[in-house]
Amino acid sequence: MSHDVPTRNGPGFHRRDFLKGSGAAVAATAMATAGEEAQAQDVPKKIAAAAPQKIKLNVNGKDQEITVEPRVTLMDALRNDLNLTACKDVCDRAVCGACTVHIDGKPVYSCTRFAVECVGQKIVTAESLMTPAKTDAVIDAFVKHDGMQCGFCTPGFVMAVRGFCNSHPGATEDDCRKGLGGNICRCGTYDSVLKAAYEVANSSKGGA
Amino acid sequence: MAERTFSWPKMDDRQLLGKDVPRVYDGAAKASGQAKYSADINTPGTLFAKLLTCPHAHAKVAKLNVEKAKAVPGVKAVHVFRDVGTEMRWEGELIVAVAADRPEFAEDGLRAIEITYEVLEHLVDERDLEAAKAKMLTKSLGNQNTGDVEKALKEAKAVHKGFYGVPTITHMCLEPHGSHCEWETLDKLKVQLSTQNVSGTAGQFAGPLGLEEAGVTILCDYVGGGFGSKFAADEWGIACAKMAKDAGKPVRLMLDRPTELKVAGTRPSAFAEVTIGCDAEGNITAWDSHHWGTSGTNGSTVALTVTPYVFDPPNRRRTATGLICNTGPNRAWRAPNHPQACAYTDTAMDDLAAKMDMDSLEFFKKNLGLTKLAHLYAPELDIAAKLMDWKTKWHPHGKGPGGAVKRGVGLALHTWGGKAHAANCQLKVHPDGTCEVFLGSQDIGTGTRTCIGVVAAETFGIPMSSVKVRIGSNKYPKAGPSGGSTTIGGVSGPVRRASQTALWKIYDLVAAKHNVSADGLTVKESQVWSDGKAICTWKQAAGLIGPMALEVVGEGPKDDGLTSDQVGGVQMAEVAVDTETGIVRMVKMVAVQDIGLVVDRLTARSQVAGALIMGIASALSEERIMDNRTGRFINADLANYKLPRIGDIGEFVIEFYEPESEYQRGVIGLGEPPAISPMAAISNAVANAIGVRVPVLPLTPQRVLEALKGAQA
Predict the structure, then answer these.
(1) H-type helices in B557-700, by residue range?
(2) Does the predicted TM-score (pTM) go above 0.80?
(3) In chain A, which among 144-183 make CB contacts under 8 A with chain B?
(4) CB B225 to CB A150 under 8 A?
(5) Tens of pLDDT, residues A61-109
(6) Do A10 and B52 touch (CB under 8 A)?
(7) What is the ipTM metric for this complex?
(8) Interface of A with B in 5-24 (CB under 8 A)
(9) What is the largest CA-CA distance in chain A?
(10) DSSP string for residues in B168-182
(11) Is A116 within 8 Å of A55 (Cβ atoms)?
(12) Half-sphere exposure of residue B99: CA atoms within 13 angstroms, side-chain side
């Protein structure tokens, strides 16, 4: 008895199939930024072949070249190609926020973008919030209020809080409760994260 | 010379103990993502492994061909867990692992595997006792009888019969189980393991791999959640090491999210039929229960011994039955057995109180004599009642004011051991006054690193920054696994002993040099004081030990009063229930907890807050949902396995019960106890709000509406 049941790990639906079926626009964008737009339009089947692309990503203010297939998410490219592992692979399905980065100043789940889509955009990861020269107020507030336990969701939460405070200076506690619903923590750090977010949003450093 | 004994400083002399000490060693590294977990290890050449798992609840591998997978570009190693003919007894059992240069190549490899299954009959309905009996898939887990239950129930003034249920939940560690394995030489393996058991897992790798245990290094600086599920090397850990050997390259194998939920641990379910009776004054005289549930194919449920929970009436009968289900196996889940037992005990008690028209708080207080910790619960209940404003907020069940949205309050109480586990530490005091502590322990998020630093820095009167804490390697002195709230006592005892021993040696050197009595010496603010006068700096004192570090080994556990066990805590919940939508909203939770001596108030508070949130999850939203037809765990992902978010938790009031007598008890573990009461307290609050019991947790809108509808019918 044979079973061809769609499971995540068996035969079934995959990002690569998605690209083959409907990802022409995505692939074309990538190709265009790689300077191969003409080829992409002329030979659509070749686009679907999902060959590895050499692309340049601007991460934390630095251009970095990597070679990835169009099916590789920004999360995987950051984690596995650039060794920037602050964005964590937790749900890989745009639910939990552990992979949050900033793209052109806005918090984005990096598992929802293909790396090739992000060419030309400014990507910022949590690692950049602490350098030998400067520590971001959000990091300090998380430490002060103990906004972490195991810490696995924390960098994603930190990026969400940083983005929220940038766009909501002076936010009330209730605003924080409503505005930070995109991140899941299992250890249960919400109460401390809330204090950290409120403090940063209401300090002079809130609206950066 | 006065006798030197190991002890904690007097309450008034504390510098750091019991204060709010932030995670100075690892907090910023965690927050900025610079902390590296097993899932983050990318040493050069690292291969990525993906898993083919069984899509059926019960099946045999009929055909399996992995040759095409091996030929997929980028695939470097293939490991078969279960070959043709192997029976698989739950969905998600591992069949094949593929390691490749990139994760997506490993996925290509999986898709090239040819496999067919012989599908067998399954049972996944853990609530339907009769169906399981009909299939002969039940196991008697005992029947105990004390006193005369029948007589007591006959003579009781009020008797309540109820049905209560707590379904299976999973651990949902955000960092899945897994490891990064790298062979340094053919007989030396380095494992970056996501574990709660740094010192206890080397042998689990060494045996199956034919290595000497000394050849295995286990490293774990950070672990992304464990909650009781990460004590073992696990078959996927061994496979990771084998593939690394086969490929000649390091391999990282982390379970994917659905597999993590299906195979890496569950908390057993428990469904209970309870009959409980009391006399005219409300003293509980009889308890009679039968509970059943599953822990998977080994057919277990909540232990008989914790039933009824905490309260032990004179006439008691308890029976338990296990269901053998084709579901993922259980693992220890934060306070094993206690939360479920608390959920069906304290709710049944609350229902009996309602039947007696008694205030739930008065009813619980009246029956504290049936517990072993009345001396703790009584004052804690008073404190909690004040913090909750219970007197104002409580009303007879369902009789509160308000329109469609009804408010209610409920309470529950719990106990836990939290005794120190075995651990040793090595302490070095360097001649420049800095100090290093080595333990083969782990920080699973509780703040273990920080607490070790607090104990050493407190003892030497130096800042946290002068203490370096080295944990997360099995090459350091052994330390027990972090489970059962045993770590804080386990590490703080040996570190205090080693630090005091080192301090006494340094006192002797200082005394000789400055011609003062060693008995009169103290340390504070990086100075050594003699009878209230600073005589030298800590650095000068440490310099007296010579050119090499002073090394001391601290041992534990010891029966010297530094640590003890057995705590009691109480919790109260306030909810708002929308009777039109069935949505339960958390308004407030009050937790009053004794933990003996508080080492670090800030991280201790976090433990309680985290426990409350985990409790809110299992009270209101989280459960494993099995599909009876396909036998599948249909919500094995983070979207449909519902966890609360930041806006769902309400207000927290957390209070440690700490009179001087508690401080004198020494250090006791805290991780488990506050995770026990929330389900019962919240369920009781909902019953208080709407006047009807929602029998099965979590209290989803559907269940709330069904209960309301049932009450009207």
Answers:
(1) 601-620, 660-664, 678-690
(2) yes
(3) 144, 146-155, 158, 176-178, 180-183
(4) yes
(5) 999 999 999 999 999 999 999 999 999 999 999 999 999 999 999 999 9
(6) yes
(7) 0.97
(8) 5, 7-11, 14-16
(9) 66
(10) -EE---SSPSEEEEE
(11) yes
(12) 28
